[in-house]
Amino acid sequence: MNNMRIEFLVKSMGKIKADKAIGEIVIYSDDQDIWRYPANSGGWGLGPLPCGEYKITYIEAKTTEAFMLFGLGWFADLIPQFVTDRTSLGLHPDGGVGTDGVKGYEGTLGCVGIPFGGLSDNITCRNLIRDGLEHGAIPFTCRNMIAISS
């Protein structure tokens, strides 16, 4: 999987306790769109992932409910390529657990969460990222696609 890159395309905004970005994750290989899935960021904590350029340098297994769906949990780090005070950002399954520990919430503390509808989509996404990392860090872009009306 040479020349992989991933984008989070923000298509709308919402709010739970904090602003929430709603859009989709798109994975490209050699500039071909090979996989896409709805995703969200924020709703809790400091709100959504700041738009900009990041790098994914590792992916690790997770057993915390907030990072798991259908029995599979993982976390891919997002290292900002710009100055920000935000830390511990990543890409992971959105386990639907609020800051109060109660299930039933979609959203994150600032990471990009993917609310997979089934185990096979969760496995596919994790494996694509894991395979892409065999060739080095993966560029990740958070891009605001919301049209600005005048």
Span of the ends, CA to CA: 41 Å
CATH topology: L,D-transpeptidase catalytic domain-like
Radius of gyration computed on alpha carbons: 14 Å
Q: Give the helix tally.
A: 1
- Please tell me the CATH architecture by its name: Beta Barrel
Main sheet makeup: 11 strands, mixed
The helix/strand order is: EEEEEEEEEEHE
Could you name the ranges where pLDDT drops below 50 across 5 or more consecutive residues? none
- Provide the residue-averaged pLDDT: 90
* CATH class division: Mainly Beta
Q: Percentage of helical residues?
A: 10-25%
What percent of residues are in strands?
Answer: 35-45%
Shape: globular
Q: CATH homologous superfamily, by name?
A: L,D-transpeptidase catalytic domain-like
What is the count of β-strands?
A: 11
Give the structural class: mainly beta
Whole-number count of domains: 1
